[in-house]
């Protein structure tokens, strides 16, 4: 697999992860705990794929700023409404936000580690 194939695959993984996070809000009340745990682990794996293969070197800082904004807004929404923000019937918004965080946090950590490694290996 060449670099372009990995790039396209990881972009699709990100889009799939976003759709999966949205779908998790709808399916959460109807699925067993094992399915929810598997979904969460899947989101982490997709996030790692995105961080490892999607972001080019010149896009890293912009990506991290965007990810920080998403994570801060997700955290703010979850903190502001600790009892739940499920204002839409049959849609678990809290679960969607948590799964979105599980998708983008590993991508951010992967990129941050790449940047730190790059800084410490420079001569």
From TrEMBL:
Sequence intervals crossing the membrane: 12-31, 37-55, 62-85, 97-117
Lineage: Archaea, Candidatus Iainarchaeota, Candidatus Iainarchaeia, Candidatus Iainarchaeales, Candidatus Iainarchaeaceae
Species assigned in the record: Candidatus Iainarchaeum sp
Keywords noted in UniProt: Membrane, Transmembrane, Transmembrane helix
Full protein name: Uncharacterized protein
UniProt entry tagged with the keyword Transmembrane helix: yes
Entry keyword annotation includes Membrane: yes
């Amino acid at each position: 697999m060449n670099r372009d194939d990995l790039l396209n695959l990881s972009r699709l993984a990100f889009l799939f992860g976003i759709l999966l996070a949205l779908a998790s809000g709808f399916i959460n009340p109807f699925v067993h705990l094992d399915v929810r745990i598997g979904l969460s682990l899947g989101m982490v794996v997709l996030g790692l794929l995105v961080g490892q293969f999607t972001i080019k070197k010149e896009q890293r800082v912009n990506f991290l700023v965007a990810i920080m904004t998403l994570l801060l807004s997700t955290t703010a929404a979850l903190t502001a409404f600790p009892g739940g923000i499920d204002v839409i019937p049959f849609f678990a918004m809290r679960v969607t936000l948590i799964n979105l965080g599980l998708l983008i946090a590993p991508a951010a950590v992967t990129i941050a580690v790449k940047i730190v490694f790059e800084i410490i290996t420079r001569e």
